Amino acid sequence: MAMKVGVLTGGGDCPGLNAVIRAVTLALHTHAGATVIGIEQGFRGLLEGRGRELARAEVAGILAEGGTILGTDNTCDPFNDRSQGEPRDRSAEVLAHVRRWGLDAVVAIGGDGTMAIAHRLHEAGVPVVGVPKTIDNDLAHTERTFGFDSAVAVVAEALDRLATTARSHRRVMLCETMGRYAGWIALEGGLAGGADAILLPERPFEVEAVAAFCAAREAEGRSTLICIAEGAHVAGEGLAVRATIASSPDPLRLGGVAAQLERRLQPLLKSEVRSAVLGHTQRGGTPTAFDRVLATRFGVHAAGLLLRGETGRMVTLAADACGSVPLAAVAGQTRRVPAEHGLLAAAEALGLCLG
Ligand code: F6P
After folding, report:
1. Could you confirm whether 291 is annotated as catalytic?
2. Which stretch of DSSP H or E encloses residue 150?
3. Could you tell me the pTM of the whole model?
4. Which residues form the pocket of ligand 1, taking CB atoms under 6 Å from any ligand atom?
5. pLDDT single digits (tens) 34-55
6. What is the gyration radius of the CA atoms in the chain, in angstroms?
């Protein structure tokens, strides 16, 4: 009998999710005549038994579409569900739906939270293959996650725009990016957009050092463009937290560090200081060509793993080749910018301020 596979997208959305859904569906149809069930709203849909068959026609034309046609959710952990008050293990309900649908395996497309749940699901007896998604590029054991390149492109374009207005007014302009506890988006986006200073979570900064850098430029009649990651912070101080979402596996939502730094820099400088937060513009919209191709490669590789019975693994990219690692190796890990990273050395060589 032909295989039946469920596909879900978990955690925050990002450009390229639909490209993976399309690639998994087409590859499984083509090579195995498999039936693919699209599970709605991530693990919430798996818990509540909400899904629909994905025929080839349904995935036609979605390659370049942002978001996810299946919907997603970043608050549901079936092993620790808080939707009805006290946390409860509701994995038995998930297993019942998997049996009812007759699923042979599940493809879980998501970030570290999704991979942690996928790992537990696999251990509970449901064969799972993970596909690494996140604009943050912070998943362990993969050089790239799809969505990251699209987010970097948004940051670069925003910096281009902020640079011209900053220059016209000789202002200090702060641009806050996403990225959680890793500085990848700010680092690559900052370099691509010609930022004068890049502040990362991995390198706590001193306000006085940033102010001195801006003041020196100010003395020469120059503006300063600062790209700051939402997880960046002053040495010895805590993170800027925008909200806490108790029901979420990762409850902290970061945000506000650019506005905080604006307030602290202003009294130390003659030029005006302004800040902009890019927020969810980095997650929305169409994927770049790079992300469309990467997402397609990941989807095809995931289908191949399933067909070979190699489950309990997450697809990876290393030296530009797709591979895979056990889900257990990814769960609960964050890949941050290492101190010796070549892009940091490049930023230093250019004379950028890193805090
Ligand atoms: O992990 C992706 C991400 O966009 C982070 O960069 C950001 O901190 C977080 O999600 C925002 O989450 P939410 O959409 O719940 O505000």
Report:
1. no
2. helix 148-169
3. 0.97
4. 12, 74, 111, 134-136, 178-180, 230, 253-254, 283
5. 999 999 999 999 999 999 999 9
6. 22
